[in-house]
Amino acid sequence: MEPQTIGQNIQSLASPFDEVVTLMKACQCTIILGLSQIRVIKGQVNKQEIERPFSLPSEWNHIEGAISVMLDKPTLMMCERGVADRGLFARGAANVFVHEFTTWGPKWVQDTEPKLQALKAKVHAQQTA
After folding, report:
1. Residue 4: pLDDT band by 50, 70, 90 thresholds?
2. What is the pTM of this model?
């Protein structure tokens, strides 16, 4: 597995959306990390006052996850503990299991490894089918 990130090791020549689609078509699988990007402290959600602050992942996590699912790519969705389970990170929103994780301490790498192995096995199964 070799990470591909637009703006990091992939230089963009088209719109970000088009680049994501092109990149995902060339990849064998997708890992979506729903890290806390936006902190909501007060306001309303569905006309209801927010009772306690919550975090949201990047809107690009939802876009990339939807593209991956639509392209039928093996997809590992991981949501950081404390990030609201909304959109594609809501369990049952897509045909993908959402794994919760935390980066507090070194154990998270060990906890993530079996998920990566399962993803790798799914990729291998698709290649040999």
Report:
1. confident
2. 0.85
